[in-house]
Amino acid sequence: MGSLLRQLQQKSASASQFVMKHGCAYYKQVLDQNKHYIVKEPTVEQCQELSKQLLYTRLASLPGRYESFWKEVEFLKNKIRNRQDLKLEEIGVAALFAGECYAWFCIGEIIGRGFTLTGYKV
């Protein structure tokens, strides 16, 4: 166990040294490659305009998302209608997804109650 811990410490130290050595250069490279996205003199007005552009761009994408949603619903309905043709792996993936959703719901409930199982704090 001690040797495993030593190996982990050595690997983390070498990784942090690599980041310290190459991180600044990578940061400068990314900024240089994307400099056309950088506003030279950011002002409050420009930031507000960009936020409005983002909002209305997202709003404009809603009809396409709505259409995609209904296509997915129709696909799911067809799968349910022809459930005798389902493969075992498709059933397994669906069961795993349902179990994961249920688990996240339960964890969210526990967090919402203040990390108590019964809802009463002692």
UniProtKB/TrEMBL annotation:
It comes from the Eukaryota. This is Uncharacterized protein. It comes from Diphasiastrum complanatum.
